[in-house]
Amino acid sequence: MTAHLPVLQVVIPLMAAAVCAALRPARVAWAFAVLVSWTVFVIAVLLLREVLAGGTISYEIGGWAAPWGIEYRIDVVNAFVLLIVSTVGAVVLPYAGDSVEREIRRDQIPLFYTAFLLCLTGLLGITITGDVFNVFVFLEISSLSTYTLVAMGRERGALTAAFRYLVMGSVGATFIVIGIGLLYSVTGTLNMVDLGLRLSELTATRTVPVAFAFLTVGISLKLALFPLHLWLPNAYAYAPSAATAFIAATATKVAVYMLLRFFFTVFGATFSFDTMQLGFVLLPLALVAIFSMSLVAIFQVNVKRMLAYSSLAQIGYITLGISIGTVTGLTAGILHLFNHAMMKAALFMALGCVIYRVGSIRIEAFHGLGKRMPLTMAAFVVAGLSLVGVPLTVGFISKWYLILAVLEQGWWPVAALVLFTSLMALVYIWRVVEAAYFHPSPTDEVAAAVREAPLSLLIPTWILVVVNVYFGVDATLTVEVAGRAAEALLGVPR
Amino acid sequence: MEFLVGHYNYWVVVFLMMLGFYVVISRTHMVKVLVGLSVFQTSVFIFYISLGKIRGGTAPILIDGPAVYSNPLTSVLILTAIVVSIATTALGLALVVRINEAYGTVDEEEIDAIERADEAAVLEAR
Amino acid sequence: MTYNIILRIATKVLCPFILIFALYVQFHGDYGPGGGFQAGVILAAAFVLYALVYGLENCRRVLPPQVVYACMALGVLIYAGTGVVSVLLGADFLDYNVLAHGDPIHGQHRGIFWVELGVITTVFGTMVSIFYAIAGRKGLN
Amino acid sequence: MSPVTAVVLAIVVPLVGAVAIGLMGEERANLRETATLVSAAIVFGLVLTLTPQIAGGARPELVLGEPLPGLPIAFEVEPLGLIFSLVASSLWIVTSIYSIGYMRGHHEENQTRFYIFFAIAISAVMGVAFAGNLFTLFVFYEVLTLSTFPLVTHHGTEAAKRGGRVYLGLLLATSIFLFLPAVIWTWYVAGTLDFVPGGILDGVLSPAAATILLGLFVFGIGKAAVMPVHRWLPAAMVAPTPVSALLHAVAVVKAGVFAILKISVYIFGTTFLQDVGASQIFAYVAGATILLASLVAFTKDNLKARLAYSTIGQLSYIVLGAMLANSYGIVGGAMHIVMHAFGKITLFFGAGAILVAAHRTQVSQLDGIGRMMPVTMAAFLIGALSITGLPPTGGTWSKWYLALGTLEAGEPILLAVLMLSSLLNIGYLLVIPARAFFAPADPELLAHPVREAPMPILIAMVITASVSIGLFFFPDPLFDLVRMVVES
Asked: How far is C134 from chain B (nearest CA, A)?
């Protein structure tokens, strides 16, 4: 059975999503979804182990050989992303059980899990497949289910947020299809590796740069790279907590993975960075994103939206690493992929705990929570410090490599900006901390009834917090994998 | 002239694409935005299908003797893309219906105005 | 439209043919143009037409929403299940060759049959459920 | 016990103590205080067992884990770190005793939280002291910042919040914005961050680059409070007095100057610093800080604020010693860590005692109070003498060596600065006990006579004051240890 792990990784959540729609009551659907997410997680771990030990895995769907049939191709890069996605899924789903019951209409809950599992399927599918059109199909599976998840939020703003996300997302996806079509028109193949080989022989054609441009813009939309980010803050802010935690930690990460795949495997680093001068496009955008989004985050009153803006800044860090285009830069980017997924999921889950008990996530709602919900707020503080990049947390590891990569290029001002924005992160995290620990609780009855969140929410949150600290204290594994992934993408022999 | 006529399929595609895209970004009525989105996506379908079409080629069905086939793959791909597009449009329309129920309007500017009023009311209440 | 006798009779006559045509498109898909997507939409069209003329309530009585939702899920399960069966028989996912013992061509036929069956079920279910969801809302009738 | 075990335990025991304190809670206050004292005593004992071995030339090493490939969390005990850990652990005992009296006498809230974070801070200090490489030092330095934040904002009032914001903001900002890049730069050019006698940067940095890097360190280590990054120190004065004692005499500020000493000796290497002349400019910056801080201290009527500015000045003595980069300077700087620790903690204990017993915070309210609180004010006098550098207190020796250092470096201006500053010290510090004993008493004080502070407070003060005097008569063990740093 281990030979079929690549396809099972996608098929299991897909079939489970279908089954989930029929399950009643909601608790059964939840238990089933949790079981599935854990299975998926185990498969991802096994795949990563196999890839680290034995190199790239190739799986041919339907027995059709690689350039013609659809191939699932797993190397260190996507095995790592698979692990990120499935880890977050496996932690968020157990958490969803209680959180969702508070935030979503009862009869819609099985649908929520269906959409959740479909989203998981789509994200895993994008990551695992070696066929560019297949990427589009899975992209749409994940996007459509994400729109649904966002629309399930409690407030009516969720609907408009979902609608805008849908329009922007569809435009982005269509751009990606155009790019893929152009590539197909010049090469006649859809297999990534095959495309990479053939494109390296094609030089003087106008189609390839156009395809490159369409793909870059399309993926950047999905990635919410500044200035194509406008859909993200509201989508994150209005989605149900569990959905936000999952989407924030995975969706943009998978988009980054797509970017890496297309830039390095399909187009090749030489074309992307030397011919198209990608670094000079991405770098300023990343820097502007890091700075402006951190600044905007400081002035938000809705904490969820604040974290959404912070996500945009963090995406800037990741693209900054990629735009450098060296092994260290890519290592930093890929490392931050994992690290940011862990810290943001933990933060959004802590917010979910607050919503569960307090019902609001405006900054005033946090007054006095340090006393009333000590464990939740402690989780928020630790994950927040990780976001700032304090030593012994994963955030520090990311910053370290990012700055190292920037210094290798001798870009002092960029390093200064990265450090300065860490301080801005400190400012917006600290606003919440001050509200929680230094403002007295409101004295009305509602506030007096606020207690610590139930264990079913706290345990998954704290698991992620512990992950944040563990991989901050011993980052050997993540650094090793990210380093190997970067080398694989750049084709550096090891 | 050869350039203009020889690539007429591209001109059609580009015209539809720009038309659809313009509607998407310029309209505030949500249904119109969806219409624009559909046109935008359709232009891509035409693009793909025209890529695979060979003048005088037949459908790729096994017949005796040599024959010129059109490339079936592009059509197959676009079949998938059409399904996706339908799903997107359907979901979009479903959202529009619910937005109409929630706000009483489907105009984005009016909705923004309502949201701003809500926010102002919250600030007022404090 | 309750009293429009011509439409009512025409619908009554047309519906069976639409259904048959859908099945034709479905099962001829192995040999000629056709297949589950088209068939599913045609199948759904029959019910949409019925609902338009005879009213949504009657259509719902013929085809309860629960059945429609079940169809959506069932089709996916049939499709993916075919792939899983081929995995269980020792080949790659969706490798139809092994579905009929020792006869790859026959196996391909079987595989395509089941996969297309999955497709028609899901497409039909989805189309009708979209129609139900949007047509069935209060205030729109 | 093997020295390695002792090192690990010295870091772990305070954490265990913190857990124990947390378990006892507010209800079992006596047990909780016992836990504090027991863990403090154990840590001090552990460090003491290390002392003869280190003095005998042993350098126990230990690697705890590798957060980043090639960058382990590693510990290595050497004389400088041992001195720092001795000071910190011994003063933890004394401060704990004092805290019990102060916190109870002052009816503070959240005492459990206070003791927990106090213990965590000590653990971080031990980590800083025993750090085997710059990375480990940086990590524990940050932990120290974060763990002391709840102590600074202990009262939770608006003023405490403001002070805490400045404290955390400035310390984190400098450490992230300057210290961290300096660490990464060092790693980038030297390929290692290990503390090696003689330094690791010789030959890999140009003089200009070395100056910039040293600047990043000097200002990045905000805890050393070199102007203009000193603002956090007065801001942190909102904390309860034992915290001020811990922050300004032992843990935080000393961690800062200790880091600077360590970097100049083991990262740059004194020879390298002298050769390229990178440190001269910062010696002048430190000199300027000494003078300015003393002048500002004059203007402060609030006792704790005056002590805070005095601390800023005294810290720069140590930075100056490090920047002189010759053996006298290093010896003087290292000794001043100890001398200033005991002197300043006595002064803060005194300030706290006056607050608890007489509810007074301003210098101008203290006329004649020495006759009602003789023990307190006597201890205060000894502390002030030590800070000023007058016999019969330990401060004499460290100032002596620092002065020799300036002469050896050929910096008569800096020598003048030292002398002038000592005069200023007399003016703003010694004047306090003088007026307390001899000035006519405040009429209000006569109307409401005050009594001596609670017994634990007095005990603590007497201990630290006597150590200050003891160090004058028996400086040899300390001197021998410090000499090992220079000779290595």
From this structure: 6
Helices (H), A204-240: 207-223, 232-238
Contact C76/A4, CB-based, under 8 Å?
A: no
Q: What are the sequence ranges of the domains in chain B? A: 2-53+66-125
Residues C70, C125 contacting (CB under 8 angstroms): yes
Q: Give, as one character, the DSSP assignment of residue D268.
A: I
Name residue A58's beta-bridge partners: A73
In a domain, C97, yes or no: yes
Residues of C in contact with B87 (CB under 8 A): 126
Instruction: Give the residue from D340, D342, D363, D343 showing the smallest Cα distance to D351.
Output: D363
Given the DSSP bridges, would you call strands A57-60 and D61-68 parallel, antiparallel or unpaired? unpaired
Contact at CB, C130 and B61, closer than 8 angstroms: no
Residues C121, A220: Cα–Cα separation, whole Å: 36
CATH, range B2-53+66-125: 1.10.287.3510
Cβ neighbors of A286 (< 8 A, separation 6 or more) are A225, A226, A316, A317, A319, A320, A323
Here the tokens at position D155 are 């009262």
What is the secondary structure of A324-337 as a DSSP string? H-SHHHHHHHHHHH
Residue D443 to residues D353, D375, D435, D436, D439: CA-CA distances in angstroms? 21, 22, 14, 13, 12
Measure C139 CA to nearest chain B CA, in Å. Answer: 9
| Inside any domain, residue C50 | yes
Shortest CA distance to D400 belongs to which of D302, D342, D329? Answer: D329
* Min Cα separation C19/chain B (Å): 21
Residue C140 binned pLDDT confidence (cut-offs 50, 70, 90): very low
What are D59-71's pLDDT values in tens digits? 888 887 777 777 8
Contact partners, residue A234, CB within 8 Å, separation at least 6: A157, A160, A161, A164, A165, A305, A308
β-sheet bridge partners, residue A59:
A72
C32 touches chain B (CB under 8 A): yes
Spatial contact of A37 and A164, defined as CB atoms under 8 Å apart: no
pLDDT surpassing 60 at residue C1? no
* Residue keyed to tokens 């604040």: A306
In a domain, C141, yes or no: no
Do residues D43 and D89 make contact, with C-beta atoms less than 8 angstroms apart?
A: yes
Cα–Cα distance for residue pair D464/D473, rounded to 1 Å: 15
Count Cβ atoms below 10 Å from residue D23 Cβ, excluding itself: 12
* Tens-place pLDDT, residues A199-254: 888 767 888 889 999 999 999 999 888 888 888 988 999 999 999 999 999 998 99
Tokens of B72: 């079936």
Q: State residue A478 phi and psi, 5-degree precision.
A: -65, -40
Could B97 and C137 be called an inter-chain contact, meaning their C-beta atoms sit closer than 8 Å?
yes
CB contact under 8 A, A479 and D177: no
Interface contact A177, partner B, CB < 8 A: yes
Quote the CA–CA distance of A482 and D116 in Å, as a whole number.
38
**In terms of Cα–Cα distance, which of A321, A337, A300 is closest to A424?**
A300
Comparing CB atoms, the residue among D69, D138, D181 nearest residue A419 is D181
Residue C101 in tokens = 């013992």
Number of Cβ within a 10 Å radius of residue B95: 27
Predicted pLDDT at A7 = 87
What is the spatial distance between Cα D76 and Cα D58, in angstroms, rounded to a whole number? 10
User: Strand pairing of A71-74 and A57-60?
Assistant: antiparallel
Phi and psi for A297 in degrees, rounded to 5? -60, -35
| CA D279 – CA D443 distance, rounded (Å) | 52
Q: What CA–CA distance (Å, rounded) separates A301 from D102?
A: 40
Contact A183, A196 (CB under 8 A): no
Q: What's the ipTM?
A: 0.83
Residue C140 lies in a domain: no
CA dist list (Å): D378 to A485, D236, D344, D381, D422: 67, 26, 14, 5, 20
**Residues of A whose CB is below 8 A from C96:** 62
